[in-house]
Design goal:
Number of strands: 13
Order of helices and strands: EHEEHEEHEHEHEHEHHHEEEHEH
Pfam families: Dyp_perox_C (PF20628), Dyp_perox_N (PF04261)
Shape: globular
Radius of gyration: 23 Å
Largest sheet: 5 strands, antiparallel
Strand content: 15-25%
EC number: 1.11.1.-
Structural class: alpha+beta
Helix content: 10-25%
InterPro entries: Dimeric_a/b-barrel (IPR011008), Dyp_perox_C (IPR048328), Dyp_perox_N (IPR048327), Dyp_peroxidase (IPR006314), EfeB/EfeN (IPR006313), TAT_signal (IPR006311)
Function: Involved in the recovery of exogenous heme iron. Extracts iron from heme while preserving the protoporphyrin ring intact.
Number of helices: 11
Family: Belongs to the DyP-type peroxidase family.
Length: about 425
């Protein structure tokens, strides 16, 4: 975890208005979008049903509520960058890594990325999957669905593309706080799914898993969540499962050096990574039983910020610059020297910065009642050797928070730039 904030909205747009639906006894057109089936404000509400391979509908009671703005929000699949990087945090997320099947290589990878890209484009538009749709999300809009694809270090060996593997994708160094499960780390391919509706997110997860077919097998999969949009009286930085405001100093797209920190430049190396980014993924377990035994004052000293509003202990509001030199009446630093927020500040790490876009997770309780819960940490940077690595090394040496968390899984993935119209993600690598 680092002291950085939620990204601003940059890609999300409301779904366009669609014509009123046909009369209730008219059959639905195959492949019609979920938004069209629901109609617009003032149109007759619809209830969906399935009969064989056809999709039918019947009239709902008069005055049925149309899609809310939450369900109608749509993110574009095609663009300069892949979706799911600068978009606002979503309420539900799934992370899944695949390994190419035995005997599968570049040819199979091309076909798989074509399928995945086509399916992601349809689902993000609020339409059913191209084939074998499960019907899970038939009565929902796009709900800000995003799907993001990345390549792991091992992918390039499997596809005979070693010469195209970026140096920035070299394995991360070992950290003293790591207790990594190799079975839940790394992978040839990585997919990030986010949406503001749990069924929409699961629908995408299932569709992409089915699309993998015999070309790739699941290596690991993790589920996460965030606060739902509109759950607070006004927009605010989210909280993590420790109850702390988490992410106050995240780089923002409006910052003049944002692209430089987060994205590979258009003339960068290798050429296929232009406008792409590198994602570090860490499953960080929070030792909540130990954390919750601490007094409020001690918790705030560990983080370096007030729990109530995220303001620095040196005073002000959440966005007030932290005064690292301020001392109390006893002469001690108000923000302790090992406070998490102090250690992670970019100006304390040679300017190293990364865009954090995490999900919380909870995977049940142990036999002793200990919660298996924490953070699915995802950070984006133009180069992990200048972003994640120097900050994590410093945290490794003296972060007060380290005794209350445990890094249990890790991965690093090269996420190429967005696909242009008519392209699939990764085409410039696989066909370049």
């Amino acid at each position: 975890m680092t002291d950085q904030s939620t990204p601003e909205a940059t890609r999300r747009t409301p779904a366009p208005a669609v014509p009123a639906p046909k009369a209730p006894d008219a059959p639905a057109r195959a492949g019609v979008s979920r938004r069209q089936l629901l109609g617009t404000a003032g149109a007759t509400g619809l209830v969906l049903g399935a009969a064989g391979a056809a999709v039918g509908y019947t009239a709902a009671p008069a005055g049925a509520t149309p899609l809310t703005s939450l369900g109608a929000d749509r993110t574009m699949f095609h663009g300069k960058h892949q979706p799911g990087i600068t978009d606002p945090l979503q309420a539900r997320g799934h992370l899944i890594a695949f390994d190419l099947a035995v005997g599968a290589g570049r040819k199979e990878a091309v076909a798989l990325l074509r399928r995945w890209s086509a399916t992601a484009e349809r689902l993000m538009a609020g339409e059913p999957a191209g084939h074998d749709d499960t019907g899970v999300a038939l009565d929902a809009g796009p709900s800000s669905l995003t799907v993001t694809f990345g390549f792991g270090h091992s992918f390039f060996n499997r596809t005979s593309l070693r010469e195209q593997r970026p140096g920035a994708l070299d394995p991360l160094p070992d950290f003293s706080s790591d207790q990594l499960d190799k079975a839940r780390s790394n992978g040839d391919l990585w997919v990030q799914i986010g949406a503001n509706d749990a069924l929409v997110a699961f629908h995408a997860l299932r569709a992409l898993q089915k699309d993998a077919g015999g070309a790739a097998r699941i290596r690991w999969q993790m589920n996460g969540f965030n606060r739902s949009p509109g759950a607070t009286a006004h927009p605010m930085t989210t909280r993590n499962l420790m109850g702390q405001v988490d992410g106050t100093r995240n780089p923002k797209p409006a910052d003049p050096d944002f692209d430089q920190r987060v994205f590979v430049p258009a003339n960068g190396e290798p050429a296929w990574m232009a406008n792409g980014s590198y994602a570090v993924v860490r499953r960080i377990r929070m030792l909540l039983d130990d954390w919750e035994k601490l007094s409020l004052a001690r918790q705030e000293d560990v983080i370096g910020r007030r729990k109530s509003d995220g303001a620095p202990l040196s005073g002000g509001t959440e966005t007030t610059a932290m005064d690292l030199e301020k001392t109390g009446k006893d002469g001690s630093l108000v923000v302790p020297v090992n406070a998490h927020a102090r250690i992670t500040r970019p100006d304390q790490n040679g300017g190293a910065a990364m865009l954090r876009r995490p999900f919380s997770y909870h995977d049940g309780f142990g036999a002793d009642g200990t919660p298996d819960a924490g953070l699915l940490f995802i950070c984006w940077q133009a180069d992990p050797l200048r972003g994640f690595v120097p900050v994590q090394r410093k945290l490794d040496r003296g972060d007060a928070l380290s005794q209350y968390i445990r890094h249990e899984a890790s991965g690093l993935f090269a996420v190429p730039g967005g696909a242009a119209e008519g392209e699939y993600v990764g085409q410039r690598l696989l066909e370049g």
